[in-house]
Amino acid sequence: MADATAPYRIKGATGDWEVVIGLEVHAQVTSNAKLFSGAATAFGAEPNSQVSLIDAAMPGMLPVPNRECIRQAVRTGMAIDAEINRWSRFDRKNYFYADLPQGYQISQLYHPLVGEGSIEIEDGEAVKTIGVERIHVEQDAGKLMHDQHPTRSYVDLNRSGVALMEIVSRPDMRSPSEAGAYLRKLRAILRYVGSCDGNMEEGSMRADVNVSVRKPGDELGTRTETKNVNSVRFVMAAIEHEANRQVELLESGGTIVQETRLFNADTGTTRSMRSKEDAHDYRYFPDPDLLPLELDDAFLEECRASLPELPDAKRKRYEAAGVTPYNAGVLTAEVETARWFDALLEAGAAPVAASNWVTGELFGALNRVGKDITDSPVTPGQAAELLALVADGTLSGSLAKQVFEVMLETGDAPGKIVEERGLKQTSDTGAIEAVIAEVLAKNPAQLEQYRGGKVALFGFFVGQTMKAMGGKANPGVVNELLKKALG
């Protein structure tokens, strides 16, 4: 699909500037334990209640890789068609920080688990492929808490040792909206695969945002890295602010310093944190406590066989069944929605009618009551039954809306509601003809006008007949019989 929009540019005093963006996304691996210990990883636990002797770096403690963490990272690589490195190695990244008891972080610099892959994004009407340079696994650090005491900082080591996938993109994005589309797509893939819950508010997915600016066609400029941005909206805001800051600085005769910055969500601005370190500053070397990872065919085959249908494939399947591209995009954006819709199709619902009903009636009702699809009072089986009652003529569209409202309130099946409340649509021609005769008798002036050529009044007679029958008459039968009665 061709790009129908102009390239994103920052208008400077000296002309247009282009923004170059790369994202390093840290995604917490969904697993039963930490990367090198058996400690739990539940969010919200009491401080320091999920810390093993390994996480606390007690002397003599040796790390052992968690197979599930490695498996989830490999599955993620496969989901973006990346190269899986059968041989990879852990390195020590040496630095001191109060929440890092070891004095180093175990990561993968030189030989990552996953190599090059790509993610296709849609930004408006434009379709673009963003390169992924690598995915490596590493352990997270703990957390310093500065607001618990007036003069001291406390350390919580619950996150120390938690497994992270660092997913490093190429600098292929050229606008805040492209970066937003990339992050949303990556999050969807992770959630479909089940390798990360994607909960950015809880810190299980966060992005380091690399931004530089240049005149279009020039060499790459000096980049800054804004650390730990925890929402799609904030990533886009950080890019916009940082790009404009760099342009203003360059145009005023300044130079960009390669540095690490922090984003302030309240002000929408970034500030300098420290000068950017290079790899040699961390004195990386192979971790002597860990053997290299060697993956065999059976492990890789099991990983590939366990992958679910991914968002792009699911979307194409829906479109092939007649669902509009827009509806297919909405239905596949979140894995819970896609699973609910698949269950609806498995229960026998027709794809087109089902997609229109879910994106219209169901989403509208859930928004109204403040629930998401996982909390829906209506099950996919009940929704399929309701749609079947419409398809076979038992319910008209308006009656179906009434039944749906009762389903939301009571949780009852639609068939039961129809029987108990007498909401069945009637196609009884005798009953409908009798009502039509009554309507015509009560409206002689409109009847005369209609027969005098004012054919638009046909809708008036349809409405009066439906009203007299409480909306329960089959509209098709009403139309047919009215045409006969009106002559």
TrEMBL record:
It catalyses: L-aspartyl-tRNA(Asn) + L-glutamine + ATP + H2O = L-asparaginyl-tRNA(Asn) + L-glutamate + ADP + phosphate + 2 H(+); L-glutamyl-tRNA(Gln) + L-glutamine + ATP + H2O = L-glutaminyl-tRNA(Gln) + L-glutamate + ADP + phosphate + H(+). It is an enzyme of class 6 (ligase). Its EC number is 6.3.5.-. The keyword Transmembrane does not apply. Keywords: ATP-binding, Ligase, Nucleotide-binding, Protein biosynthesis, Transferase. InterPro entries: Asn/Gln-tRNA_amidoTrfase_suB/E (IPR017959), Asn/Gln-tRNA_Trfase_suB/E_cat (IPR006075), Asn/Gln_amidotransferase (IPR018027), Asn/Gln_tRNA_amidoTrase-B-like (IPR003789), GatB (IPR004413), GatB_Yqey_C_2 (IPR023168), Gln-tRNA_amidoTrfase_suB_CS (IPR017958), Gln_synth/guanido_kin_cat_dom (IPR014746). Allows the formation of correctly charged Asn-tRNA(Asn) or Gln-tRNA(Gln) through the transamidation of misacylated Asp-tRNA(Asn) or Glu-tRNA(Gln) in organisms which lack either or both of asparaginyl-tRNA or glutaminyl-tRNA synthetases. The reaction takes place in the presence of glutamine and ATP through an activated phospho-Asp-tRNA(Asn) or phospho-Glu-tRNA(Gln). SMART domains: GatB_Yqey. Belongs to the GatB/GatE family. GatB subfamily. Gene3D superfamilies: 1.10.10.410. Heterotrimer of A, B and C subunits. This is Aspartyl/glutamyl-tRNA(Asn/Gln) amidotransferase subunit B. Pfam families: GatB_N, GatB_Yqey. One of its GO terms (biological process) is translation. The keyword ATP-binding applies. Residues 339-486 form the Asn/Gln amidotransferase domain. PROSITE patterns: GATB. GO terms for molecular function: asparaginyl-tRNA synthase (glutamine-hydrolyzing) activity; ATP binding; glutaminyl-tRNA synthase (glutamine-hydrolyzing) activity; transferase activity.
